[in-house]
Amino acid sequence: MGTILEIKDITKQYPGVKALSGVSMTFEEGEIHAIVGENGAGKSTLIKIICGAVSPNAGKLILSEGEFSEMTPALAKKNGIRVIHQEFNLVPKMSVANNIFLGERVGGKCIISDKLMLEKTSVLLKELNININPEEEVEYLTTGQQQLIEIAKAMSHELKFLIMDEPSASLTVSEVQAMFEIVKNLKAKGVTVIYISHRLDEIFELCDRVSIMRDGHYISTNEISQVSRQELIKGMVGRELSDTFPEKSGFQNDEVVLECKEIKGKGVKSASFVLHKGELLGFSGLVGAGRTELAKLIYGAEKIVGGELIIKGEKRIFKTPSKAISSGIGLIPEDRKKEGFFAEYGIDWNITIMSLPRLSKLGYVIDKEAGKVADRYFTQLRVKAPDKKQVVKKLSGGNQQKVVIAKTLAAQTDVIIFDEPTRGVDVGTKQEIYKLMREIITQGVSIIMISSDMEEILGMSDRIIVMSEGKITGQLLPEEFDQKKVLELASPHSKTTKVF
């Protein structure tokens, strides 16, 4: 065992931003090496430099094959470097086998042998203990299965170095454990794994060493057994963080602002619950339980086919999201990149887009008023950017999420649905979002929070609703909060209990 990769004095400058400042690290053969840091710390830029997607302004990469002032995708592939990105690079309509060997001529220079491709895929999947039909189309696989196919795809070539960017972000507990077993097997074969995650519990369970980055600088590297959770957090944010979750206000309010009575629609078989004014109502369940689908039915993004939606005592069905927004219902979607913001537009434009009817007169936007709104929420949410004209696609994931939240707050909604509010967000930004959610509640706004993070559900909710297989299976009051009870209600075929 020895050093397989050394990063030496890597610097990357973008217009107005220094993404990396003289970063140096070493990675050992056959280790699982975590890289942690807040959004914007430079982790993604470093990954792109290692795999050849971005060229550094200075510094070099040192491999056993030699020194490189810059890497290219072809050179990275030749040196056994593979990356599994947070957004999968799979073709939904193609089979598992075709995805794994996409771009490869299996069988010869002129002929692609489907039979040989299927045989190789079967051997590879068996080696990884993945029970998936090689002929199955990828679009019919679960998110966890698609993650495993990405790993198999990386292993279809010579693999020395695997980079995993937020690999567990969309996985269930069981899927995460299955992925862990495969990663440990790769380590046993001498593969070096760089593991990037905001979930610190995973870092301590899986990794051998951890390197901390902050604001484009390398901070330190430690053996995982020699560092505490609080020390990691302090290294990432540069300060001590108090308790993760803000203190609850002891919610007590009988005023109902939203009620669902046996709501049915795409992905939802039956959902009945009430939401009170100033309440943070947590929705828990496994991936695919129907929580996001229910949110879209309430928001008008999908059609309600049965049941009643009652808003402040009035029966309502929203045919479009704009109707829901005008009635005071806002949604911060799970997939912020596809549904949350306009990537090519500026922060200010995104913040005010849902508020234009209020900020317009005779069909014309009042620029001065729109500017005030953008300034207010840009400052309040502490969006890290050179200015509010910055194009949103250039922001880190955490700051993109802040823009989506700012846009919804600016629309002055009374009920906000947060769908996975801190997915892919660092610990410091998480705490900011949690505090913001509690501040919103004190102003009389009601929140529905959908989360797959058990700590988040237990730590933030005033009451918990659990879903399974398109149905609400029960509710838990604060005195009943317990991880085991949540998981029991979330399990398929769990017995439905009465929900108030």
In short:
This protein is α/β, with parallel strands linked by helices and 500 residues long. It is built from 17 helices and 22 strands. It has a six-stranded mixed β-sheet, with helices on both faces. A six-stranded mixed β-sheet has the order 16-19-20-13-21-22, sandwiched between helices. It has a four-stranded antiparallel β-sheet with strand order 2-1-4-5, with helices on one face.
Radius of gyration: 24 Å
> What structural class should be given to the helix and strand makeup?
alpha/beta
Distance between the termini: 59 Å
Number of helices, where a helix is a run of at least 4 consecutive DSSP H or I residues: 17
| Whole-number count of domains | 2
Unreliable parts:
none
Helix proportion: 25-40%
Tell me about the largest β-sheet.
6 strands, mixed
What is the CATH third-level topology name of the largest domain? Answer: Rossmann fold
Rounded mean pLDDT score: 86
Order of strands, widest sheet: 6-7-8-3-9-10
The strand count comes to 22
Q: DSSP strand (E) fraction? A: 25-35%
CATH class of the largest domain reads Alpha Beta
In the CATH hierarchy, the architecture of the largest domain is 3-Layer(aba) Sandwich
